[in-house]
Automatic annotation (TrEMBL):
Pfam families: DcuC (PF03606)
Keywords: Cell membrane, Membrane, Transmembrane, Transmembrane helix
The keyword Protease is annotated on this UniProt entry: no
Membrane topology: Multi-pass membrane protein
Stated name of the protein: YfcC family protein
PANTHER family listed in its UniProt record: BASIC AMINO ACID ANTIPORTER YFCC-RELATED
Chief location bin: membrane
Residue intervals passing through the bilayer: 6-27, 71-91, 111-129, 150-174, 194-213, 242-263, 269-289, 301-318, 399-418, 425-446
Location of the protein in the cell: Cell membrane
Length: 448
């Protein structure tokens, strides 16, 4: 009996690109008028301004050209992944990563399970603070080494990092790219409703960590460290220590640069290049050995990096066909005829559906908030609840949408199929979404 096998990630993304091009022949072209929002500096839609425009169907040739255009749009993060992948391959070839993980395991003996909540809390915090997503991709090789040496399934590396960051971002009271942009566009005071969001963030993160730990413990296979590995680590302990010190320094600079200096992907990529060169020289690989390590890393990481460009191409095609605004208009128009609570829940449905063609939370906010905020005033719904509905629906959808390039790239690095991830994450996603729905309904009842 043949069982259905989920398509390869590249097949899946190319399929979505073809579907987007096909929709440009079926859906009417249209667009909203846009104006600059002074609070955010972004171009936002003008409510009630949707109108039909001449059709601009995307031809097969244009569709193919949009693939490299999507890669060009995502060039910063793609090159970051290449440079970070090369750097961590060099690190791995020095033996320092395995040495550091084994040192950690020796001191955490009997308490290995605590590694999961510590890592998850770290990434959930970064998600809540600055919507960490693509920045996690280059850190996955380190987490893979750690999880394998702990004996946990590799899917734990995805869940404890990107998964935790997505949950932290979706329920965050301060995430500038989700709640911050949405509140400004809804003309709400920044950080308003923070206490209410925090009250939901804590159980959300606790629920996620509990689910990740439960799966990891149930599927743990005790690792074995051979005497040859121990002897080799002992002989190289001095060099390994220097490499790990460099890694710690670079990670500290990375965190400071992202959070405090507003670093973009170019600065991050430069830092990882320095890390790789420094690690190779300190680890005794020499210039040629370091260069060969980078080349090996480039080759191994290429597929994962390019997936992000293919994912970006979907939106490029939709924009070229002028059907993004048509989709938004069609989904949002019926909401004004529903009772208040159903309208709020309908907004969650719309935000979830929109996140497939618009896999950017800040971009989705600029599309929907100027439409939903005035609608909320008309039907007697709090604008704060509108922002909550956006956060919990669009933010959590990052866990399951196949157009999330970062997710697909990380899954590819870990050798995990998208359907395997869906089976793993679906129960947790459903529980978190139920928490979000409860938060929206309670927000209406409490007058948030």
């Amino acid at each position: 009996m043949n069982t259905f096998r989920f398509p390869h990630p590249l097949v899946l993304l190319v399929g979505f690109i073809i579907l987007a091009a096909a929709l440009s022949y079926v859906l009417p072209a249209g667009q909203f008028a846009r104006q600059k929002n002074e609070a955010t500096g972004r171009e936002v839609v003008v409510p009630g301004s949707y109108q039909r425009v001449p059709a601009t169907p995307v031809s097969p040739l244009d569709m193919l050209v949009d693939i490299p255009k999507g890669m060009a749009d995502a060039a910063g993060v793609i090159f970051l992944i290449f440079l970070a992948g090369g750097a961590f391959t060099v690190l791995d070839q020095t033996g320092a990563l395995r040495h550091g993980v084994d040192w950690l395991l020796a001191r955490a003996h009997g308490r290995e399970v605590l590694v999961i909540p510590i890592i998850s809390l770290l990434f959930a915090t970064m998600g809540a603070l600055e919507n960490m997503g693509e920045e996690i991709v280059p850190l996955i090789p380190v987490l893979l080494v750690l999880m394998r040496r702990l004996g946990y399934p590799v899917i734990t590396a995805v869940a404890a990092s990107l998964g935790a960051a997505i949950v932290g971002a979706a329920f965050s009271p301060i995430n500038p790219f989700q709640v911050g942009v949405a509140q400004k566009l809804a003309q709400l005071p920044l950080l308003s409703g923070g206490g209410y969001r925090l009250a939901l963030l804590l159980p959300a993160v606790a629920l996620w960590i509990a689910g990740v730990m439960r799966h990891a413990i149930r599927h743990r296979v005790a690792p074995e460290i051979t005497t040859d590995e121990v002897a080799a680590d002992a002989r190289g302990a001095g060099r390994h220590g220097l490499v790990l010190l460099l890694l710690l320094v670079c990670f500290s600079i990375f965190g400071y640069g992202v959070v405090s200096l507003g670093w973009d992907f170019d600065q991050m990529g430069a830092l990882f290049f320095v890390l790789g060169v420094g690690a190779g020289l300190l680890g005794g690989l020499g210039l040629s050995g370091t260069a060969e390590g980078f080349v090996t890393g480039f080759r191994d990481i290429a597929f994962s990096a390019l997936l992000i460009g293919f994912a970006r191409a979907i939106f490029v095609v939709l924009e070229q066909g002028h059907i993004v605004d048509t989709i938004v208009q069609a989904l949002s128009a019926p909401l004004g005829n529903l009772p208040v609570t159903l309208s709020a829940l309908g907004m969650m449905v719309v935000q979830t559906a929109l996140h497939l063609p618009v896999p950017s939370v800040s971009g989705q906010a600029t599309l929907t908030m100027p439409l939903f905020a005035p609608l909320a005033d008309i039907i007697g719904l709090s604008r704060q609840v509108v922002v909550l509905a956006f956060q919990y629906a669009a933010g959590l959808c990052e866990l399951i949408t196949p157009t999330n390039g970062s997710l697909l790239a990380i899954l590819a690095i870990c050798g995990i199929r998208f359907d395997q991830w869906l089976r793993y994450v679906w129960p947790l996603y459903a529980l978190l979404l139920a928490l979000g729905v409860a938060g929206v309904v309670a927000g209406i009842w409490l007058g948030v």
